[in-house]
User: Fold this.
Amino acid sequence: MEKRTYSIGGKKYIQREIGLAQLEALLALLEDANVKSFSEITNPAAVARLARGKALAKLLAILLVPEGRPFDPEKLDEIASEFEDANIPASIAVKVIADFFAINNGWIESIGSSFAEAQEAAGRGTDTG
Assistant:
């Protein structure tokens, strides 16, 4: 399994293929930020919108897991705060997003880039009946 390692604020974080709990958190965050598709998070205007709303640090907290620990959705705000305190350079944030697509491209392409399709694949589709 492909992974990337980052050193932020003196700690190591790992990015691997996204898990289901991470996908659920990611979809919720991006929907709240009014981002309509995965590909939109590569758009500089969307990244700026996420940064203004402090959602960019939370996005990174979803994508990056502390080394040696499993993803814990209850720790997202704490990790996002650590990222904000570390004042991560924008180039690192953009690299993490680019690496997300490099690592997860296969399944993103297989389901399409719309969140409706991703929600359905993750079992979060809305019941219309």
